Amino acid sequence: MSEYQNRAVELLIATIGEETILDSADRRIRFLRQAIELFQAMGGSAQEASAVVSAAMSTPAPVVSAKLGDLMSELAGIGYAHDIDMIQAAYNTLDQGWQRIAVMETGKTAERARSA
């Protein structure tokens, strides 16, 4: 795995746990939610999303590795169209996740100190 992927998995383990990461049903629901939110952020409507879902689900299930590659290409195109470095955006998200964890840990430490 790449350095980014390793760091992202480390953050996921810290926030939701390894068992949840390995749960395919949970992964696909969380992914679909993020994809729909990106679609919405780009101006997509619920009606468009529904039509796309119907069209996609009417074809045979593809191979995960091939679709993951296709997805990365589409994300690169979206980044290009919106002048966003997708890798930098991904690292920014990792940094924000670790900052949230640090804030929570600081709060827990302060709470323990008050309780002592």
Task: Tell me the layout of helices and strands.
Elements: H1 3-16, H2 18-21, H3 24-41, H4 46-57, H5 64-81, H6 86-115
Helix pairs in contact: 1-6
Largest sheet: none
Q: Assign the structural class, choosing from mainly alpha, mainly beta, alpha/beta, alpha+beta, or little secondary structure.
A: mainly alpha
* Helix-strand pattern: HHHHHH
Helical fraction: over 70%
Strand content: under 5%
Globally, the shape reads elongated
Low-confidence stretches: none
Number of strands: 0
If you average the pLDDT, what whole number results? 94
Describe the structure in your own words.
The N and C termini lie far apart (43 Å). The chain is elongated, with a radius of gyration of 18 Å. It has one domain (3-115). The chain has helices at residues 3-16, 18-21, 24-41, 46-57, 64-81, 86-115. The protein is mainly alpha-helical. Helices cover 83% and strands 0% of the residues.
Characteristic key phrases:
6 helices; 116 residues; 0% strand; mainly alpha
How would you concisely characterize the structure shown here?
The chain has helices at 3-16, 18-21, 24-41, 46-57, 64-81, 86-115.
